[in-house]
Amino acid sequence: MPRPTEDLDFFTTRQLGRVDTASDALVTAVTERGWSVELKRTGEEFRRWAITGPEVVLIDLAVDSPPTGAPTVTIAGPSFAPAELAVRTTLALFGRAEPRDFVDVYVLNQRFDRADTVRAAAEADLGFDLPVFAQTLRSHQRIGNEDFPDVGVPIAEIRAYFDAWADELDPR
Q1: How far apart are the first and last CA of the chain?
Q2: The model's pTM
Q3: Rounded distance, CA 90 to CA 120, Å?
Q4: Model confidence over 89-122: pLDDT tens digits?
Q5: Cβ of 106: how many Cβ atoms within 10 Å?
Q6: pLDDT digits over 133-147, tens only?
Q7: Which pLDDT value is given to residue 6?
């Protein structure tokens, strides 16, 4: 059940790179191709760019913690290993709870044991709190059905999944 990608995420660590330097290189490469670039969001350690060429793609450049294990090599460069990606995606859901985060975690939990992933998330982020995470899981209720990316699963099923998981973690 892959979710169609709407953006590309590129990360570095504080020791290895800087977002402003990567942004400058990205803008240069994009404009050399005759494409347009628009800065959508910025911060000291984050930039979101909208690149318009044959299609529009969002590119996020950000500082993140280094991988805990060996990276997986992809065509775009090194990437987090799949299990670590599941943990980081769970932490993204915990931190921002966007529609895509719910869908991504739902899809990843079809492959990875969610108890193991939650345990690893708590080890990776000392601020990860199960009762707060349960509230986050319930927060899907504030999101309209039309805002969830389509992964071929009824939204009602995804919502029920997160409600059941929240009740398991923190029964009311």
Answers
A1: 31
A2: 0.77
A3: 10
A4: 999 999 999 999 999 999 999 999 999 999 999 9
A5: 23
A6: 999 999 999 999 999
A7: 66
CA contacts within 13 A on the Cβ side of 117: 23
Q: Copy the structure tokens of residue 88.
A: 């980081």
3-state secondary structure of 49: strand
The two three-digit tokens of residue 122, written as one number: 């708590």
38-49: burial string, b at 16+ Cβ within 10 Å, e else:
eeeeeeeeebbb
Asked whether 58 and 40 are in contact (CB, 8 A), the reply is yes
Q: Is it the case that residue 5 has pLDDT exceeding 70?
A: no
Contact 134, 166 (CB under 8 A): yes
**Three-state secondary structure call for residue 35:** coil
Residue 54 DSSP class: S
As given in the structure block, the two tokens for residue 113 are 């044991």
Q: How confident is the model at residue 148 (pLDDT cuts 50, 70, 90)?
A: very high
Of 93, 6, 89, 2, the residue nearest 50 (C-alpha)? 6
Torsion, Cα 145 80 6 94, to 10 degrees, reads 30
When computed from its CA atoms, the radius of gyration of the chain, rounded to whole angstroms, is: 17
